[in-house]
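Tip: read the tokens left to right.
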């Protein structure tokens, strides 16, 4: 560190006092009227210098004792400076450079002030505003220049070609924006820069490596060329403008020697780079009084209705030893706030391609939305944990002066975006505020501001070092990371075994492992340390951030519960001591699902259930989709629940929504399955898509009643999806498959709902479960479970034959697709098996004693044709049964009884049966209506009279309602608000 004596400090501060960027007494009073919230003293510019000197040189110099005067801004402009920053995405082509230029002209012309800020309460115009724009390289330029350097090691012709392409693209944009009288000089400078770059990279083949300083020098030209390009446009528009090479002004010190550019998008890439504000302020004044006067931005000739616009390069700087350097990748935001501090700006606006800082990455969480306001601390936490809108270092220069940072959308400039300002309440202050309360008790208040993630991390774990001593282990372990230059993102420690786990960037994992193994080499050889391991799978950090988390219970529980419901496994947990964030490490493949699950859990967005409907074109599937669409708005309002059908299939085709987006918003599924986007039904491909679906709450509804589909249930459940099945193929199918499905349910905290498989919309299974779970002893179940049989034997008489009654049941959609399954008793037997298995009985369909109403000839006959043709043929053959069935009906009728197809499940004997028998008027089935099911529960508690569940249960509408109810049961479990 360079040492300064007290006289030099006084000279430096005195020089800053006469900076043209400093406001006068009159001007500072105006500053608050244009939304600067830090009106502290008559002269404010040196305050940052004082704080910086206190921090770095242990000196305390009072601002008021050093500065007694100040110099006005150009043309006595009353308003303070404002800084605008534009990233590469905002400067991709000539059209966008024009957009940026026009926006700067508009912003510098001033704005209407709120009436509350005016002395007379009237809305007034602020007047012109001195404006500085910090620009990044145009989109893709930095990567192109990196490629130039990398190519030079192998092929200079390739390097030269890449450089020529980069320069020519920039020049073509430049020439679209201004005439040759302005661009010729800039073009000449750019071409000279290109020659300088080639001369630098030509030497790389000799040394066979790329020194970090070379990469920084070369890549910095992207910003330099971009600034001159925007300058040319503004010059052409007649604006008082100049461009500033930040390397001439911004002086920094880097704690990490030869750190290079850093990783693109890294949350720690500017770490260790410290602006030297004293030197930078002196350089700024030198530039202002030199280039500024020459270019006319520091001039009294500027019309009183205009303000100067200075275009400064982001990203680049000069080290304290005079070497060109950078603020590392993603560091242009940092440049903007540093210059805001140097100019004592009223505000900084970061122009992005999003409407501010979002509650989550909208590319991964479509329901995310723009946050109105954040505190500096919250913004830094979000940025540190991966939010790409801002860099964490960018907040630091604004904190001392409480300079507000606005994040706005260059493509939607009318939107107010996000404002970042103010500090969070300290934990000690929060502790004084009162007792801990559950966050849900504060209706309408959400404790977090956002959810974010860091992809591509690894876990490094040191295990079983208890014999060494915990404090020593931690010191040596963390020291090894610091010595190797490893960025440690999270730390957790288990004191019982002196085990420490740290989270590091994946690309630093092997270096971290080697550093730890070297440090504990002796202990490893003596087995004093069990081992040091590095995960071989890419992981991700997911964090919730918000000041409102402090002293509020239930926040972490809500977070963890949401991940469990989304079947996301947590590898590491850490909570910041400030109680502003809780972070977990999860598998990289689960990161998007975790983000969406947490976002929904805190009611930052509606709870969305991602639904796949198989057999969507059948009567049952069509009825379900119709009901879902009819209730969509009601579910949204009453339950804060959104049902998103994003995959449907028929027996031959399927179609899936892209990126997990909703597919079905109308009932016309057939039209979609007939479109070119539909593909052949492929259950394996559908299963893979289901596993990859980032929606945290996934449900498959199987309307097919197909054994081959039921074979996939366990896979879906093991992947974290829930299953609803109105069919009986899974519940009454092979016992091995049934047990596999049950095991998948219990192992993955998911649900298999099949209430509608027994009694359509009747609460048969839920009633049975309630009885068992409350300790009741169920002894016998009896009743009628076949809507078809109920209709047939309620309808047939002397005037209506058996076959005619069956035909009517088919027409009313009461029957199965294959009506022989109803009439043979197989369908009723499957329902009996489902009930018996709920009671813990090891029963299969073959164990049920079933009376078939069909002859062997009809039951075994091969029918061909369409479903309608087959049913017509069966109905024709059923006429042969009319006479014997009528005879049986008369026999029972003569004795005061009615025919009913009845089932029994006798728990004591283990006997299950389905048979046609006569019932008298004392039997509960005697008054069974034509579309009803009835189940009587005889239990140890219901002895004098059975518990009866009875109601309409035939037809696709009722079955669909049962599935809908199953879906809502699952949805309520997902929703944090119910």
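Filled-in amino acids:
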């Amino acid at each position: 560190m360079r040492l300064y004596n007290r006289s030099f400090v006084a000279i430096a501060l005195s020089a800053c006092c006469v900076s043209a960027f400093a406001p006068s007494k009159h001007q500072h009073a105006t500053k608050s009227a244009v939304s600067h919230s830090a009106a502290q003293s008559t002269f404010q510019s040196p305050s940052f210098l004082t704080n910086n000197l206190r921090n770095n040189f242990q000196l305390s110099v009072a601002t008021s004792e050093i500065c007694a005067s100040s110099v006005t801004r150009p043309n006595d402009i009353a308003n303070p400076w404002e800084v605008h920053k534009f990233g590469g995405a905002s400067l991709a082509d000539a059209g966008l450079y024009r957009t940026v230029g026009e926006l700067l002209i508009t912003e510098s012309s001033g704005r209407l002030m709120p009436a509350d800020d005016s002395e007379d309460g009237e809305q007034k115009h602020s007047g012109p505003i001195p404006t500085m724009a910090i620009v990044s390289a145009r989109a893709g330029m930095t990567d192109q220049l990196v490629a130039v350097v990398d190519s030079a090691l192998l092929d200079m012709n390739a390097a030269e070609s890449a450089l020529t392409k980069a320069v020519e693209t920039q020049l073509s944009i430049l020439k679209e924006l201004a005439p040759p009288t302005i661009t010729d000089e800039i073009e000449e400078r750019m071409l000279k820069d290109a020659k300088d770059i080639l001369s630098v990279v030509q030497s790389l083949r000799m040394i066979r490596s790329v020194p970090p300083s070379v990469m920084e020098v070369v890549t910095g030209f992207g910003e330099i060329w971009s600034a001159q390009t925007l300058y040319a446009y503004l010059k052409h528009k007649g604006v008082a403008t100049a461009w500033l090479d930040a390397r001439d002004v911004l002086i920094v010190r880097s704690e990490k020697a030869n750190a290079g550019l850093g990783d693109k998008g890294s949350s720690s890439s500017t770490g260790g780079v410290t602006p030297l504000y004293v030197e930078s302020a002196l350089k700024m004044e030198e530039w202002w009084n030199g280039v500024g006067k020459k270019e006319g931005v520091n001039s009294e000739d500027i019309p009183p209705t205009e303000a100067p616009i200075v275009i400064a390069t982001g990203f680049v700087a000069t080290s304290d030893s005079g070497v060109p350097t950078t603020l590392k990748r993603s560091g242009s935001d940092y440049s903007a706030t540093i210059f805001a501090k140097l100019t004592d700006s009223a505000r900084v606006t970061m122009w992005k391609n999003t409407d501010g800082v979002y509650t989550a990455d909208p590319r991964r969480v479509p329901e995310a939305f723009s946050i109105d306001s954040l505190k500096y601390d919250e913004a830094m936490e979000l940025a540190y944990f991966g939010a790409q809108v801002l860099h964490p270092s960018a907040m630091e220069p604004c904190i001392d002066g409480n300079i507000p940072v606005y994040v706005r959308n260059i493509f939607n400039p009318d939107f107010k975006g996000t404002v970042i300002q103010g500090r969070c309440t300290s934990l000690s202050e929060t502790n004084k505020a009162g007792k801990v309360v559950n966050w849900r008790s504060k209706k309408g208040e959400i404790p977090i501001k956002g959810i974010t993630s860091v992809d591509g991390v690894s876990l490094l774990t040191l295990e079983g070092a208890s014999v060494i001593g915990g404090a020593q282990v931690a010191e040596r372990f963390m020291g090894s990371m610091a010595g190797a230059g490893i960025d440690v993102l999270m730390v957790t420690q288990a004191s019982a075994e002196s085990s420490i786990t740290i989270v590091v960037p994946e690309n630093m994992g092997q270096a971290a492992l080697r550093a730890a193994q070297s440090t504990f080499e002796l202990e490893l050889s003596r087995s004093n340390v069990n081992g040091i391991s590095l995960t071989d799978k890419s992981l991700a950090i997911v964090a919730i951030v918000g000041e409102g988390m402090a002293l509020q219970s239930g926040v972490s529980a809500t977070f963890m519960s949401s991940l469990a419901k989304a079947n996301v496994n947590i590898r590491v947990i850490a909570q910041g001591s400030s109680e502003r964030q809780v972070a977990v490490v999860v598998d990289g493949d689960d990161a998007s699902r975790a983000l969406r699950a947490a976002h929904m859990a805190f009611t930052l967005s509606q709870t969305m259930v991602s639904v796949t409907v198989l057999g969507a074109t059948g009567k049952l599937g069509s009825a379900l989709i119709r009901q879902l669409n009819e209730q969509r708005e009601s579910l949204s309002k009453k339950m804060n629940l959104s049902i998103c059908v994003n995959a449907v299939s028929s027996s031959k085709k399927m179609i899936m929504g892209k990126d997990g987006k909703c597919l079905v918003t109308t009932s016309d599924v057939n039209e979609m399955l007939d479109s070119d986007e539909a593909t052949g039904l492929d259950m394996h491909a559908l299963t893979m898509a289901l596993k990859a679906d980032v929606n945290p709450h996934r449900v498959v509804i199987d309307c097919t009643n197909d054994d081959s589909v039921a074979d996939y249930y366990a896979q879906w459940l093991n992947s974290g999806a829930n299953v609803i099945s109105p069919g009986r193929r899974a519940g009454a199918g092979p016992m091995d498959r049934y047990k596999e499905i049950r095991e998948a349910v219990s192992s993955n905290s998911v649900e298999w709902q099949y209430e509608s498989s027994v009694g359509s919309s009747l609460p048969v299974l839920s009633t049975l479960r309630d009885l068992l779970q409350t300790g009741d002893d169920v002894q016998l179940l009896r009743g009628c479970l076949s809507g078809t049989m109920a209709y047939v034997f309620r309808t047939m008489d002397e005037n209506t034959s058996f076959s005619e009654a069956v035909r009517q049941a088919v027409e009313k959609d009461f029957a199965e697709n294959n009506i022989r399954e109803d009439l043979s008793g197989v369908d009723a037997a499957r329902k009996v098996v489902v009930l018996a298995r709920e009671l813990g009985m090891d029963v299969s369909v073959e164990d049920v004693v079933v009376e078939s109403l069909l002859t062997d000839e009809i039951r075994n006959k091969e029918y061909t044709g369409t479903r309608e043709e087959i049913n017509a043929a069966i109905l024709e053959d059923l006429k042969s049964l009319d006479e014997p069935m009528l005879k049986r009906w008369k026999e029972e009728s003569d004795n005061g009884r009615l025919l009913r197809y009845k089932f029994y499940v006798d728990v004591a004997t283990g006997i299950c049966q389905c048979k046609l028998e006569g019932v008298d008027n004392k039997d509960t089935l005697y008054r069974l209506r034509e579309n009803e099911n009835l189940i009587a529960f005889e239990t140890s508690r219901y002895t004098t009279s059975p518990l009866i569940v009875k109601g309409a249960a035939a037809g696709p509408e009722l079955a669909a309602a049962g599935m809908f109810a199953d879906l809502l049961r699952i949805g309520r479990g997902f929703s944090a608000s119910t």
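Residues 1-72, 265-270 have pLDDT under 50 and may be disordered. The longest strand covers residues 450-463.
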